[in-house]
Design a protein that fits this description.
211 residues; mainly alpha; Arc Repressor Mutant, subunit A; 10 helices; 68% helix; flat
């Protein structure tokens, strides 16, 4: 009987991501990935312990596609914008895998590279110590929250349409705001929201410098 071919982590992550992209996250099983690879299910356990290990490989693959190199001379805020937007776009390529990014981001080395690159930008912006901790956590919280909203509660989705149809007499601000929200593209929403955060961080850095 011929010896089964050796597999690489790239083989495994590619097959797992193909299953997720085609059939959704719930379809990710060891059996499904083995079928995608044309091998026996038990053969996968030579490379990964369980589904959770497969999930981490998927997140590694997504983050590996994010270019962390930046053109020279960019302002620190623009560096943050570029890094976070690249992450958003890479995630948008595989929307069914977004929950895995939220779940395993700290286990993926590619994620650590993104965090370090963002911390470098924040440091150049004058944020250090605890201020840098809070700034980084705020940016990651914004990014993760945006990914959830974009793929599971988009402004163009049915929830916003329902709110836009509410009685303006009973909910004057909500009805008008929901109507306005339906005109906002994901790109505009992401950019404008990030601008608000970066402006606040710049003010914080200036305050810390003057204190």
């Amino acid at each position: 009987m011929p010896r089964p071919r050796s597999l690489t982590t790239d083989d495994l992550s590619g097959a797992a991501l193909a299953v997720i992209d085609r059939n959704g996250l719930d379809a990710l099983t060891m059996r499904a990935v083995a079928k995608e690879l044309g091998t026996a299910t038990m053969a996968l356990y030579r490379y990964v312990a369980d589904r959770a290990a497969l999930e981490i490989l998927v997140v590694e693959r997504i983050f590996a596609a994010i270019d962390l190199t930046l053109p020279p001379g960019l302002d620190w805020r623009e560096r943050v914008r570029v890094l976070l937007n690249r992450t958003r776009l890479a995630s948008a390529e595989h929307p069914e895998a977004v929950p895995l990014i939220l779940r395993h981001r700290q286990s993926a080395r590619g994620s650590l590279g993104l965090i370090d690159a963002t911390l470098s930008a924040l440091t150049d912006g004058g944020l250090t110590g605890v201020d840098r901790v809070i700034a980084q956590r705020t940016l990651i919280g914004y990014l993760l929250g945006f990914l959830q909203n974009e793929h599971y509660g988009a402004l163009s989705g049915p929830g916003t349409a329902i709110m836009a149809g509410l009685s303006p007499e009973e909910y004057p601000f909500l009805a008008q705001t929901a109507a306005d929200a339906r005109t906002v593209t994901p790109e505009h929403e992401f950019r404008a929201g990030l601008d608000v955060i970066l402006a606040g961080l710049a003010d914080r850095a200036a305050w810390a410098h003057d204190s």
